[in-house]
């Protein structure tokens, strides 16, 4: 199914009057606060979030998987689904591929399919946490960190192949999430594992094209349950510094031990100019990969508060914005539309924080007023502003309502069948 401008205009018609009333009321209040509403809208229109190819189907857990039907079973169908999201919210202009789950067979056809729906290719992800059917050596006990040099070389070669695939599609970054670790004390030498990882990453780093970045994703546990070789931001940062200017740390919101202050990690990485990207999702306990903003929306706001300050006060380059979620229960497309909206809302809230006032009360240690200033922004309903930014970009005033109204899932099921399955987790 392809979403046309007619689809958008017809579905926007009944919402235009109420939207205009809500937006004009909000815009008036924001201008009274000295905010430039047009500038806010432009920033929101420019803010694009990459969609993970592996989240367009129904994810599962080890206890079960309940497919919703009509899943994209080919890379072209995945690209078309991201095209549908982008047509609805004009905020998802690229797909992030995972190799080998999404190895292109016909590059020209893939590039053409993407161009037809106005999307590009964001960071490509390597995968040395699963053995492929024809694989000679196993990653069971690790890949880049493995004590066996031939297994490390296999994993290095895989990452180099992923870079070549990304180059043919116009990607500009390689994301390395290393599952390597141990599940029992005594299983491996922490220092040798880290040294092997550094040396392996150095070889991959040397294969990076000049204008590419390497994004090092950290995670405290799973699939191993005693150690992970890159468990936290500090180890990722340490390696990124050792590797060079093109290496950065990637922050997956679900990859933190309970109650970790992620907004402080973001501030520290930006101070060092090493914040390379995000995998947005939400979680209550572990790496739950839930809808962004569904559990801790205030934390998401505080993270964007640090990002907006960091853009003004540091030289950290603009990070790669990506979602990384797994949809076990909701319709994956609805879930992704909700996640993109939550991210844009948090960004909008951070953009209206009265920075001057906040800085002044911080100097005066007026803690109460500091909270008032932040929560005034967080508690301002900016949904009409986000909707207006999407409307001005030719999208749907309510992307989810339009998605449901157009019965997209029903037509995907008719077209692809109830049992079509997407490759991925
Ligand atoms: C690991 C992770 C990583 C991906 C995978 C799909 O938990 O966050 O980013 O490779 O999920
Ligand atoms: Mn991730």
TrEMBL record:
Keyword terms of this UniProt record: Isomerase, Manganese, Metal-binding
Name of this protein: L-rhamnose isomerase/sugar isomerase
Claim: Electron transport is one of the keywords in the record: no
Domain of life where this protein originates: Bacteria
InterPro entries, sorted: L-rhamnose_isomerase, Xyl_isomerase-like_sf
Gene3D superfamilies: Divalent-metal-dependent TIM barrel enzymes
GO molecular function: isomerase activity; metal ion binding
């Amino acid at each position: 199914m392809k979403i046309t401008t007619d689809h958008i205009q017809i579905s926007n018609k009944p919402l235009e009057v109420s939207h205009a009333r809500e937006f004009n009321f909000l815009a008036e209040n924001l201008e009274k606060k000295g905010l430039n509403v047009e500038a806010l809208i432009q920033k929101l229109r420019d803010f694009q979030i990459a969609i993970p190819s592996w989240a367009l189907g129904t994810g599962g857990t080890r206890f079960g998987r309940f497919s919703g039907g009509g899943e994209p079973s080919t890379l072209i169908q995945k690209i078309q689904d991201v095209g549908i999201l982008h047509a609805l919210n004009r905020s998802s202009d690229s797909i992030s591929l995972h190799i080998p789950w999404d190895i292109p067979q016909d590059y020209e056809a893939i590039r053409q399919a993407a161009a037809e729906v106005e999307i590009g290719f964001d960071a490509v992800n390597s995968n040395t946490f699963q053995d492929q059917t024809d694989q000679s050596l196993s990653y069971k006990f690790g890949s880049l960190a493995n004590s066996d040099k031939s297994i490390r070389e296999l994993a290095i070669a895989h990452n180099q192949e992923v870079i070549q695939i990304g180059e043919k599609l116009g990607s500009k970054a390689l994301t390395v999430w290393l599952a390597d670790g141990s599940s029992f004390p005594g299983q491996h030498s922490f220092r040798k594992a880290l040294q092997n990882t550094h040396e392996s990453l150095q070889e991959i780093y040397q294969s990076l094209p000049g204008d590419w970045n390497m994004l090092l994703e950290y995670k405290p546990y799973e699939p191993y349950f005693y150690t992970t070789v890159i468990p936290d931001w500090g180890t990722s940062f340490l390696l990124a510094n050792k590797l060079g200017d093109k290496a950065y740390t990637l922050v997956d919101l679900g990859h933190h031990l309970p109650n970790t202050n992620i907004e402080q990690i973001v501030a520290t990485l930006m101070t060092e100019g090493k914040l390379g990207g995000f995998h947005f999702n939400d979680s209550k306990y572990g790496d739950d990969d839930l809808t962004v903003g569904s559990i801790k929306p205030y934390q998401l706001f505080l993270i964007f508060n640090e990002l907006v300050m960091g853009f003004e006060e540091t030289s950290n380059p603009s990070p790669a914005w990506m979602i990384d979620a797994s949809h076990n229960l909701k319709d994956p497309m609805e879930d992704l539309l909700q996640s993109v909206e939550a991210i844009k809302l948090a960004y909008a809230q951070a953009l209206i924080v009265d920075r001057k006032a906040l800085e002044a009360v911080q100097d005066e240690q007026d803690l109460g007023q500091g909270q008032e200033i932040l929560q005034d922004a967080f508690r301002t309903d900016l949904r009409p502003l986000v909707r207006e930014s999407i409307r001005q970009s030719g999208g749907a005033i309510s992307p989810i309502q339009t998605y449901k109204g157009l019965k997209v899932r029903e037509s995907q099921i008719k077209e692809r069948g109830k049992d079509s399955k997407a490759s991925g987790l």
